[in-house]
């Protein structure tokens, strides 16, 4: 194994620092807490997130491959955690809480089974590693945030239970029109029917040649929005720090995957100048579901104070995630992002107290209504779930994080 991929185990329960006694607000995935009066609530919230770590003694990946992901699977596990958080939002809601030894809801058991380390689980380490081969990553090689985002997008196609849209926003640009077309596929069908039969004939058209399935006519397919970014060269540019914090304050936040070079973490919030994260760098035995499908789930929840690191230690290559269950939630996210961007713009111009801009920063990405002329639509590739045309795919989805466009320090 390449020495650069070797890492460490961190599960030494006596070594974790207690949560700080501070008057600074604590933000965890869109929820604000007071560390002085709500510490138990903070720890309960953290413990309720799915915590995926290295595992050992699982069935060989690909039949003859590795039986442990120790040393190379940390970003894959972080990808599982951010996707797991989205599935929890989708099926259980943000306010759901886990408690040890309690009877769990069927939806929770189904979510957990989707990540069990075996080949036929939707989002297992086996599926992610093998799908990554199509992204130019041999099994056992370390992933970057962009690569794992692309792999999760492919795997979600086969999850007919959750019926999610996973959109990876490339070129630091989120295109509203493109996302609404993906989450409301009936819009395209309505347009096609309108062209052939007249707009007023939509209902009749749906009963005929343009008929859609119940899934396709849903008003909105829940959205996982992943935005791969590079916020500097070798270190994070401090101009993005306040903007990054704002991401954790949005109710749609799924957190951020990133970390340090060759050492990935799942960031779920911040307090002061420290990021709060779940660390996958501990090796636990693989878990087998019982005959009735139940899973011994205690090792899938972090039951000690979460890890923290200074935000300036963050590697600049990250992927931010957001979940919008409905169109209203997506519209609300767009409004909040535009408000943040306006606030950041004003901080360069003047101090406008009515906008609550005490400290400014630079936008990490653009939010636009329609696709800029210089961008190529993914839909134009007509990609299918098996993505067999790897040469064509590679031109648009470069798996090397070093190829991200460096966001410039220019004033708006």
From TrEMBL:
One Pfam assignment: ATG4_LIR
EC number from the UniProt entry: 3.4.22.-
An annotated GO BP: mitophagy
SUPFAM superfamilies: Cysteine proteinases (SSF54001)
Subcellular localization, as worded in the UniProt entry: Cytoplasm, Cytosol; Cytoplasmic vesicle, Autophagosome; Endoplasmic reticulum; Mitochondrion
Tagged with keyword Transport: yes
Keywords tagged on the record: Autophagy, Cytoplasm, Cytoplasmic vesicle, Endoplasmic reticulum, Hydrolase, Mitochondrion, Protease, Protein transport, Thiol protease, Transport, Ubl conjugation pathway
Superkingdom of origin: Eukaryota
The Peptidase C54 catalytic domain, residue ranges: 40-335
Classification via InterPro entries: ATG4_LIR, Papain-like_cys_pep_sf, Peptidase_C54, Peptidase_C54_cat
Reactions catalysed, as given in the entry: [protein]-C-terminal L-amino acid-glycyl-phosphatidylethanolamide + H2O = [protein]-C-terminal L-amino acid-glycine + a 1,2-diacyl-sn-glycero-3-phosphoethanolamine; [protein]-C-terminal L-amino acid-glycyl-phosphatidylserine + H2O = [protein]-C-terminal L-amino acid-glycine + a 1,2-diacyl-sn-glycero-3-phospho-L-serine
Gene Ontology, cellular component aspect: autophagosome; cytoplasmic vesicle; cytosol; endoplasmic reticulum; mitochondrion
GO molecular-function terms, A-Z: cysteine-type endopeptidase activity; protein-phosphatidylethanolamide deconjugating activity
Function: Cysteine protease that plays a key role in autophagy by mediating both proteolytic activation and delipidation of ATG8 family proteins.
Family membership: Belongs to the peptidase C54 family.
Protein name stated in the entry: Cysteine protease
